[in-house]
Amino acid sequence: MGLLDKDITEYLQTIQPFFAGALGELHAAALREGFPVAPPETARLLAFLITLAKPMRVLEIGCAVGFSASLMAMHMPEGGTVTTIDRYAYMLERARPNLARLGLTERVSILEGDAADVLPTLTDAYDFIFLDAAKGQYGRFMPECLRLLKTGGILVADDVMQEGMLAHERTDAPRRKRTTHTRMHDFLYTLSHTEGMQTTILPVGDGVALAYKTTDNVTWRGAVDDVD
Questions:
Q1: N or C: which end of the chain has fewer CB within 10 A?
Q2: Helix axes 40-53, 67-75, angle to 10 degrees
Q3: Structure confidence by residue, pLDDT tens digits, 215-226
Q4: What is the pLDDT of residues 64-79, one digit of tens each?
Q5: Which CATH code of 3.40.50.150, 3.40.30.10, 3.90.550.10, 2.170.130.10 fits the domain covering 6-213?
Q6: What pTM did the predictor assign?
């Protein structure tokens, strides 16, 4: 569900072509089968950002069936690599053959496990981080994301508006979504007020937060616990 008027969303999706070839086929199939992949307008934004920023090292948190990792790998400079993390074996069982079909197994590395456990083990610096995992865990991942993101690097967090519910009171949200509502509100507020990060939030798809790291040693001061 997009945040914009339905007619506007449909118009934008109509006027912008799907990706060509096997990448477009993967995207269409994932959307049709209900897998958690970026809608067309968000995918186009991601491709634009990767093309503009020209990152050589990308970190993705939330691989799913491998569409966004493939998209980024195919739009980054020659020699660039993507490292993607996912804890769900049934997703990675689909992602691996998709990457092979696109000829990307040498450019995309999969790390299986909970990002909260995997991120502290990483030592490389990344030019671009795409955060598209469990929405209630974004704040939990941020200290490590900021450590791993290079100065001058870009962080993109997807699906940050919870189908627009974040613009309303927590008590207006379904009970099962109230914890995520609180955590995501804290995440967006903290990201927007973190010294050393230049941030904007766009009403694309279900909301996309973009943050540019302007200085070293950025400190995350939002909630990081995993307690409901």
A1: C
A2: 30
A3: 999 999 876 655
A4: 999 999 999 999 999 9
A5: 3.40.50.150
A6: 0.89
